[in-house]
């Protein structure tokens, strides 16, 4: 696990609440279409931003169940949702959900499935806990859509290849529909959303990825520190002269339990 200093932690918090991530959460939120009184699972709830938004939408008669494997993330989510009586936050695994069969109306998972070596156990568990006709919304990046300018494309390709190692599957949206069908779901739609940044926005996805990728490459020793720093510095320099370009697509997959 990467360890972040205070400055990096602040940058991440800014990014999660910035425009790029807010728009992405909103697409997932709209796909879930929460209604008053519903019981909704936020699988991989992270720091609780989407959890809190869903809790507002279902009201006092509804309930949001947030599940995450990370104690640190759950701590942040508990702090964020501490005044919400209709939120329950649990530490656990997606392949062994601590809920009764057919006890949940809807489920959402935002940028979680790319970390699963095998997504089938999680999909099987989601099928078990959702009621008949219950909606599942799974949102992940397709990293093959990454377009990122550099005057040193060989170094950029090397850096992206290193970053790929932090996920188990870089093509989740591409293979998810077939996996959902095999797990007993009926596909409804796939909603694409592309983040494009030409300014290296301080609260943007690109800025966050530069910081994370730099830390990851250095901590794993996958690239020499001077080369890693030069890669990051080049992006700052490109932004200063109006030559920065970053684009990455996110896909929201919507299905129903049959």
Q: Biggest sheet, in brief?
A: 8 strands, mixed
Instruction: Give start-end ranges of low-pLDDT stretches.
Output: none
Q: Helix-strand pattern, N to C?
A: HHEHEHEEHEEHHEHHE
The overall pLDDT average reads 94
Rounded to an integer in angstroms, the radius of gyration calculated over CA atoms is: 19 Å
Q: DSSP helix count?
A: 9
The span between the termini is 38 Å
* Helical content band: 40-55%
Kindly state the number of beta strands.
8
Helical/strand content category: alpha/beta
How would you describe this structure to a colleague?
The chain has nine helices and eight strands. Strands 1, 2, 3, 4, 5, 6, 7 and 8 form an eight-stranded mixed β-sheet that branches. Strand 1, helix 3 and strand 2 form a beta-alpha-beta unit.
Topology summary:
Blueprint: H1 6-16, H2 19-32, E1 39-43, H3 49-58, E2 63-68, H4 71-80, E3 87-91, E4 104-110, H5 120-129, E5 130-141, E6 147-148, H6 153-164, H7 172-182, E7 185-197, H8 205-220, H9 225-240, E8 246-257
Parallel strand pairs: 1-2, 1-4, 2-3, 4-5
Antiparallel strand pairs: 5-8, 6-8, 7-8
Helix pairs in contact: 1-8, 8-9
Keywords for this entry:
258 residues, alpha/beta, eight-stranded mixed sheet, 9 helices, 8 strands, globular
Summarize, please.
By secondary structure, the chain is an alpha/beta fold. The chain contains nine helices and eight strands. It is globular.
């Amino acid at each position: 696990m990467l360890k972040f200093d205070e400055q990096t932690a602040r940058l991440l918090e800014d990014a999660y609440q910035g425009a790029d991530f807010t728009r992405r959460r909103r697409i997932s939120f709209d796909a879930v279409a929460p209604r008053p009184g519903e019981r909704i699972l936020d699988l991989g709830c992270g720091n609780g931003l989407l959890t809190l938004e869903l809790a507002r939408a279902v009201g006092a008669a509804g309930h949001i169940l947030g599940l995450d494997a990370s104690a640190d993330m759950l701590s942040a989510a508990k702090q964020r949702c501490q005044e919400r009586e209709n939120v329950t936050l649990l530490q656990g695994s997606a392949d062994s959900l601590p809920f009764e069969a057919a006890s949940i109306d809807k489920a959402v998972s935002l940028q979680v499935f790319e970390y699963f070596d095998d997504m089938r156990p999680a999909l099987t568990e989601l099928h078990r806990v959702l009621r008949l006709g219950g909606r599942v919304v799974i949102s992940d990046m397709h990293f093959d859509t990454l377009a990122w300018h550099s005057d040193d494309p060989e170094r950029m390709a090397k850096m992206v290849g290193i970053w790929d190692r932090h996920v188990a599957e870089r093509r989740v949206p591409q293979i998810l529909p077939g996996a959902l069908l095999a797990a007993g779901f009926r596909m409804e739609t796939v909603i694409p959303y592309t983040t494009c940044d030409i300014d290296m926005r301080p609260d943007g996805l690109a800025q966050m990825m530069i910081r994370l990728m730099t830390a990851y490459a250095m901590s794993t020793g996958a690239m020499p520190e001077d080369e890693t720093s030069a890669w990051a510095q080049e992006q700052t320099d490109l932004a200063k002269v109006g030559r920065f370009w970053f684009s990455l697509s996110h896909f929201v997959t919507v299905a129903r339990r049959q």
